[in-house]
Amino acid sequence: MAKIVKVRKKRTLRLGSVAALTLFLALAFSFITVIFVRSENQRMLREIDSINNKIAEVTAQNQDVARQVNELSSYARVVQMAQEGGLEFNHNNRLYVKGN
């Protein structure tokens, strides 16, 4: 009786299976990248909004301080403080400086 010999074939990678695997991995990577980029963009947008809100607050504070400075440095207030300090107002000794 003759022996039955099973011949084992070597499995080789086919070009189609390699291409399909590469395509699948590329799609998976692109989906993960898209999700990451979108979440990063959302985080940056929230940070930008936060910074814009802080800028608006600081701008409002600066305007308030500028208004207070203008009130405190008005000519009438300076004259009043000078008179309270004992200084006299001499009309003959005035100098006017033209602004821009």
Automatic annotation (TrEMBL):
Places the protein is found: Cell membrane
Top-level taxonomic group: Bacteria
InterPro entries xref list: Cell_div_FtsL (IPR011922)
Cellular component GO terms, alphabetical: plasma membrane
Coiled coil feature spans: 41-68
Annotated keywords: Cell cycle, Cell division, Cell membrane, Coiled coil, Membrane, Transmembrane, Transmembrane helix
Membrane topology: Single-pass type II membrane protein
Biological process according to GO: cell division
Protein name (database record): Cell division protein FtsL
